[in-house]
Automatic annotation (TrEMBL):
Belongs to the enoyl-CoA hydratase/isomerase family. It comes from Stigmatella ashevillensis. This is Enoyl-CoA hydratase-related protein. PANTHER family: ENOYL-COA HYDRATASE, POLYKETIDE BIOSYNTHESIS ENOYL-COA HYDRATASE PKSH-RELATED.
Length: 257
């Protein structure tokens, strides 16, 4: 994990893509390192939130490493792309809440990482986009997430023109949750992480899984499924504790069960 740094700070696992000279591009080693970091965070009881960021102040992640494209042959390259797809799936499906700390530009596959995180906080100076079309490529896997974040016309405009968005524009489209001055980035991420860390981890995991499952269901089927998930939710120990705490007007003591 030389190209991915992992550190636990309080209840946060801070995962950093550490290739600033390569614009924090996604080499096969970075993808594997990120997969390992997610697994490490998920089994660590001290970690309640995973924060993903890039080294330096200029780039969060510039996407795939074009300089390494084709190394190892066609099939090996295809498998590396499948590994990135797995990374997006693992990041989105993580049991722990995930936050993208967008310290610099998030482009191409880097935008995919942002969209796969549950929440995202960006410094105001950053740009986000899918510029692959300008080198004769198309952001195939990123589209699966982009389609779920913005409307059809806007999504097609982004992938077909390659235009970059400012942080404020990305905020208005719902691609990120916050856009703050660079000097306030850590404080904003920390406040959001602390808020998530203070919730029942068991209920957050159950609710997140239900959210993702229902997302692609027809409306009547989604309602039926979510009704069953609410019944399951009420059986959780933390649900009983939360209701008891509310009625007793005291802070809940979560057991994460």
């Amino acid at each position: 994990m030389e190209e991915v740094r992992y550190a636990v700070q309080g209840h946060q696992a801070l995962v950093t893509i550490d290739r600033p000279r390569a614009r924090n591009a996604l080499s096969p080693e970075v993808v594997q390192g990120l997969l390992e970091a997610i697994s490490q965070a998920e089994v660590d009881p001290a970690v309640r939130v995973l924060v993903l960021t890039g080294a330096g102040e200029k780039v969060f992640c510039a996407g795939g490493d074009l300089g390494q494209m084709g190394e190892g042959g066609f099939l090996a390259t295809h498998e590396s792309r499948r590994a990135y797809a797995l990374l997006l799936s693992r990041l989105q499906g993580s049991r722990k809440p995930t936050i993208a700390r967008i310290n610099g530009h998030a482009l191409a596959g880097g935008l995919g990482l942002v969209l796969a995180c549950d929440m995202a906080v960006a410094a105001e100076h950053v740009e986000l986009g899918t510029p692959e079309i300008d080198v004769g490529l198309f952001p195939m896997m990123v589209m699966a997430l982009l389609q779920r974040h913005v409307g059809r016309k806007r999504a097609l405009e982004l992938v077909m023109t390659g235009d970059r968005l400012s942080a404020r524009e990305a905020l208005s489209l719902g691609l990120i949750n916050r856009a703050v001055p660079a000097a306030e980035l850590d404080a904003a991420v920390g406040a959001l992480a602390a808020k998530l860390a203070g919730k029942s981890q068991a209920v957050l995991a159950l609710g997140k899984r239900a959210f993702l499952t229902a997302e692609d269901m027809p409306f009547p089927a989604a309602l039926e499924f979510l009704a069953s998930q609410l019944s399951l939710n009420t059986l959780a120990e933390d649900a009983a504790e939360g209701i008891s705490a509310f009625l007793s007007k005291r802070p809940p003591d979560w057991k994460d069960r």
